Amino acid sequence: MEGVFGQSLSFVLVVIGAVLCIAEALAPGAHLIVLGVALLAAGLAGMFVLSGATAFQLAGLVLVVGMVALYVYRYYEIYEGTGSGQTQSSSDLRGKRGYVVDPVTPREGRVDLEHGGFDSSYAARTTTGTIPADTEVVVVDPGGGNVVTVEPVADAAAAGNDAEDGVPG
């Protein structure tokens, strides 16, 4: 096997991979973990499984392991890397759908919003009567705190159609 710095290529890959994994631990979210895991796994495989592997074979292994590591990193949202489950501001809640957990009235209630952030449970109010539990709702006014104004999905859709027709809703 070819050598680098007087050491086997597999050993160098293990060292570089370990350094990148440690750097990721010191600076989380830097995405060094994907390359670090790929280099570390390829180096370990080269040392213990494929002892006669060439540089091209190890490079291919780094590529394959890197693609798998990236997929796992993104799919399981390690470090919440994609941020898809978070809202950026209260205005992002407008139009979000969810279900009533505790009946919603003009004075009290609770809803659970789909993709509503880290804690998807919100205090809720309505401007029209009472919305019973397990009713699908849509946020019509996110407010500015953790209290949102919601309406049943059917009512919100009808209000939107009236507005489009020029008929006051």
TrEMBL record:
One of the record's GO molecular function terms: peptidase activity
Gene3D superfamilies per the UniProt record, alphabetical:
Nucleic acid-binding proteins (2.40.50.140)
InterPro entries (UniProt xref): Membrane_assoc_protease, NA-bd_OB-fold
Q: Respond yes or no to whether keyword ATP-binding is given for this record.
A: no
- GO cellular component term, pick one: plasma membrane
Record has Manganese as a keyword: no
Arranged from A to Z, the UniProt key words for this protein are: Hydrolase, Membrane, Protease, Transmembrane, Transmembrane helix
Query: What stretches pass through the bilayer?
Result: 6-23, 30-49, 55-73
Sorted alphabetically, the Gene Ontology BP terms of this entry are: proteolysis
Q: Which residues form a coiled coil?
A: none
PANTHER family to which the protein is assigned, alphabetical: INNER MEMBRANE PROTEIN YBBJ (PTHR33507)
Protein name from the UniProt record: Membrane protein implicated in regulation of membrane protease activity
Native source organism of the sequence: Halobacterium salinarum (Halobacterium halobium)
